[in-house]
Amino acid sequence: MGEEREDRDPVRVVVVGGGTAGWMTAAALARLLPGRCTVQLVESEAIGVVGVGEATLPHIRAFNERLGIAEADFMARTRATFKLGIEFRDWGRIGDSYVHPFGTFGRGTGAVDFHHYWARLLNEGAPLPPLDRFSYACTLAREGRFDHPDPDRRRLAGTFGYAYQFDALLFAPYLREIAEAMGATRTEGIVTRVERDGESGDIAAIVLGSGERIDGDLFVDCSGFRSLLLGEALGETWEDWSRWLPADRAVAMPCRTATAVTPYTSAIAMPAGWRWRIPLQHRTGNGYVYASAFTSDDDARAALEQAVEGEAIAAPRLLRFAAGRRRRSWVGNCVAVGLASGFLEPLESTSIYLVQQAITALIELFPERRVAAADRDEFNRVIDLEYDRIRDFLILHYHATTRDDSPFWNYVRTMAVPDSLAEKMELWRRRGRVVKYREGVFLDASWVAVYLGQGIVPTGWDPRADTVASAALLEGLHALHGEIAGEVAGRSDHRAFIARFCPMADAA
Q1: What is the pLDDT of residue 8?
Q2: Are residues 11 and 46 in the same domain?
Q3: Are 276 and 314 contained in the same domain?
Q4: Among all residues, which ones are annotated catalytic?
């Protein structure tokens, strides 16, 4: 009976590391599992945070809503802008541009997906506008406009979602306020030792530089690339994916916003990788993600300095990383969240999404004071799927190219890809079919945008797309294009919408 009573006591959760991952974890646990756990976060002001991941996916909206965060307040406090998708420039070939939207192509209704009709007409040689002209989200983005989606998903204005572009250095303090208001506590200090149970191998406690010992039942590793608990203390194996995702460094430099505050993130291909452009209310984030095997740090820095569109407001900052993940993200009584678990580079803004998914899975499988192997195994299965499927999607961007203008692009164009991706690409080429998953972040429209945007046009399609006469189908597509353009023309300018809805809290 004593053990049963002990298991019903609140689980003592110790979060090691602050930043976005740490404070998202602390806030979510404190908010969503009140009485089920206590939350103590340990961080040190002497240890910096990465803090450059400013672009997100639409899933963050649901996370914020679950925490009771008001959108306008969050955006004002983090100086955020809206994000309707990601623009890709020069990826398939130099001069190309397409948008990966947070929304559907066409009306998003009907038994046959829109891209099958589009691919059929394209194969027939019909004169067609680019695919993204048939997306409400893409058209809004291209025109620099924004409005909240219509709640009626049957309407064109209800066929899209959105995310945010925000200052990551302001997000963690914002979450800290929320977490502490809900009962989470913070301890300042640097972890100098990890104590493990001699029998189970679980983590028993962490010891700080001050000598303070903090014990707990569940330890959440949010220590970033160092992976202090899962990687260093528990020795969990690292799976290296750099042969498929060779970019291993980034140089980041913010600048004053001198050009349009676009409602989308830009990813511009460069000779040894790609460059991001993320417009916030008060500045624009810029960075060059590159493979050090194909260019030097000095050359990458110089290329970024030459490319930015406004006056720099900080010196270029160099980041080193590796693409891959820990073989398991939950070992014993230790769960890794964020960079401590893995990293897949910022190409599709998945880092914060992966943090969110790990937190969601942890809450759904939250343990008693003694962790059950079945819960731990299910968590690892879910997180493994997320990493593997995002990995394939990112590799597709690099591999689906005709560029041969630099050694880097020659490498990624000709490299062998994972079997799981090769099978997806073959199915697409033959049938225009996107592999469907019950779990995973990127839905059909995301894959379609990259496949077609980078020049992989299927030679086959759903046979039901042949039931409409070509002339009638072409007429319908042009009518849809005009309808979308007309509706978007009546929407607000993106910057004007922000000025009304969520102007930044201060300009300091």
Answers
A1: 72
A2: yes
A3: yes
A4: 83
User: pLDDT by residue (tens digit) across 69-92?
Assistant: 999 999 999 999 999 999 999 999
231 in a structural domain: yes
> CA-CA distance, 206 to 223, in Å (whole number)?
13
Sign of CA dihedral 294, 297, 302, 305: positive
Question: At 251, which amino acid appears?
Answer: V
Bridge partners, 219 (sequence order): 14, 334
Q: Are 314 and 284 in contact (CB under 8 A)?
A: no
Which pairing describes strands 249-252 and 284-290: parallel, antiparallel, or unpaired?
Answer: antiparallel
Nearest-5° Cα angle at 470, 464 to 474: 105
Domain end (from 297, 320, 343): 320
Are 125 and 272 within one domain? no
pTM of the predicted model as reported, rounded to 2 decimal places: 0.94
Give yes or no: residues 228 and 171 share one domain.
yes
Place of tokens 């999404």: 353
Q: Which of 262, 293, 320 is the last residue of a domain?
A: 320
For the chain, the distance separating the N- and C-terminal CA atoms, rounded to the nearest angstrom, is 58
One domain, residues 156 and 300: no
- Mean pLDDT estimate for the chain: 93
DSSP string for 376-432: HHHHHHHHHHHHHHHHHHHHHHHHS----SSHHHHHHHHS---HHHHHHHHHHHHH-
Distances (CA, A) of 422 to 249, 353, 393, 418, 427: 26, 25, 11, 6, 9
Q: Which domain holds residue 255?
A: 249-320
Q: Please write the tens of the pLDDT for every residue from 362-384.
A: 999 999 888 999 999 999 999 99
Encoded tokens for 27 = 């806030």
